Amino acid sequence: MALTVDALLCPQNHRCPLIPICPAGAISQEGNSLPRIDPGKCIECGKCVKRCGIQAVYKAKEHGQTL
């Protein structure tokens, strides 16, 4: 399953603190916009899911969701 960032939960008002903890470098962000997870780079280790204090990152149940 792919990981996704929930735009309704993510405040999008600061630099995402999850970017440096991703061992695959799969999380990117332009300015303070919604962080994006590159499914081609993501190894689904779950570090971002565990570390997101507002639980905005989670495993998408359907592959059709935009990442």
Word description of this protein:
The protein has one helix at residues 47-51, and strands at 3-5, 27-28, 36-37, 57-59. It is mainly β and 67 residues long. The chain has one helix and four strands; from the N terminus they run E-E-E-H-E. The protein is 7% helix and 15% strand. Residues 62-67 have low confidence and may be disordered. The longest helix is centred in the C-terminal third of the chain and has 5 residues, at 47-51. The protein has one domain: Alpha-Beta Plaits. The chain is globular. The strands form two sheets. It has a two-stranded antiparallel sheet. Strands 2-3 form a two-stranded antiparallel sheet.
- Tell me the radius of gyration: 11 Å
User: Percent helix among the residues?
Assistant: under 10%
Q: Biggest sheet, strands in spatial order?
A: 1-4
- Any low-confidence stretches, pLDDT <50, length ≥5? 62-67
CATH architecture: 2-Layer Sandwich
Mean pLDDT: 91
Provide the domain count.
Answer: 1
Strand content: 5-15%
* Total number of strands: 4
CATH fold type: Alpha-Beta Plaits
DSSP summary: helix tally: 1
CA(first)-CA(last) distance: 12 Å
Largest sheet: 2 strands, antiparallel
Indicate the overall shape.
Answer: globular
Order of secondary-structure elements = EEEHE
| CATH top level label | Alpha Beta
